[in-house]
Design goal:
Strand order of the largest sheet: 1-2-3-4-5-6-7-8
Radius of gyration: 16 Å
Order of helices and strands: EHEHEHEHHEHHEHEHEH
Number of helices: 10
Distance between the termini: 10 Å
Number of strands: 8
Oligomer: single chain
Strand content: 15-25%
Shape: globular
Bound molecules: 2-phosphoglycolic acid
């Protein structure tokens, strides 16, 4: 099965650099997904249309359209041709106080709009050091994932943007644990995935793809990651 390679640009990208990146990714001929900031989705969509690059949002509202200033409804992403939307990223859980119940509601809205939600879970360092990582992730899965065609992303919070990758054994053990809960749903790994560690991570059992932050901003590196699948 081919691997799902997702780039999360986070809050990076004005039009010129977004178009530059999108054009290079489209020219690679490889299957991948990019999640630009909301302001760049339409431009990126136009730039990659007809290529193997799909696109998605980084978040959506748990509500339908209405009086929710600053939020973006799942159907608005769908109208832009998005295939995916990330929900429950640890930066949303930490900085915006999103609870698993809210994440589940967002994922359900995404499904109802015809999007595939990428539901993020992962423990913080203190939880891993206390040996609670499986309990934490198990609870997040139970509370954040609705029934349906969902992608799970395991991202240990201590590995995000830190250059610290979970060890192959940690990834193998956690993905096996998640497989036991998630059945056949695809499971991505995220956290400091780079061109030089992607091959080993992508060939770990129960790793169906990767969710890439920092390295997805460098087209050559992201293309190398996609090529490692
Ligand atoms: P990183 O981010 O690749 O920069 O560690 C991953 C993520 O937050 O999805």
């Amino acid at each position: 099965m081919s691997k799902l390679i997702v780039g999360n640009w986070k809050m990076n990208g004005l039009t010129a650099d977004s178009l530059d990146r999108a054009g290079k990714l489209a020219a690679s001929g490889l299957h991948m997904v990019v999640c630009p900031p909301a302001t760049q989705i339409a431009a990126v969509a136009a730039a990659v249309k007809g290529s193997k690059v799909l696109w998605g949002g980084q978040d959506c509202s748990a509500q339908g359209p209405g009086a929710f200033t600053g939020d973006i409804a799942a159907e608005m992403l769908k109208e832009l041709g998005c295939s995916y939307v990330i929900v429950g990223h640890s930066e949303r859980r930490q900085h915006h106080g999103e609870t698993s119940a809210q994440v589940k509601a967002k994922a359900a809205k995404a499904l109802a709009a015809g999007l595939t939600p990428i539901v993020c879970v992962g423990e913080v360092l203190a939880e891993r050091e206390a040996g609670k990582h499986e309990a934490v992730v198990g609870q997040q899965l139970a509370e954040s994932v609705p029934e349906g065609n969902v992608v799970i992303a395991y991202e240990p919070v201590w590995a995000i943007g830190t250059g610290k990758v979970a060890s192959p054994e940690d990834i193998r053990a956690m993905h096996a644990f998640i497989r036991g809960k998630a059945g056949a749903l695809p499971i991505l790994y995220g956290g400091s995935v780079k061109a030089d560690n992607a091959r080993e991570i992508l060939h770990t059992p129960n790793v169906d793809g990767v969710l890439v932050g920092g390295a997805s901003l460098k087209p050559d590196e992201f293309i190398a990651i996609a090529g490692a699948g």
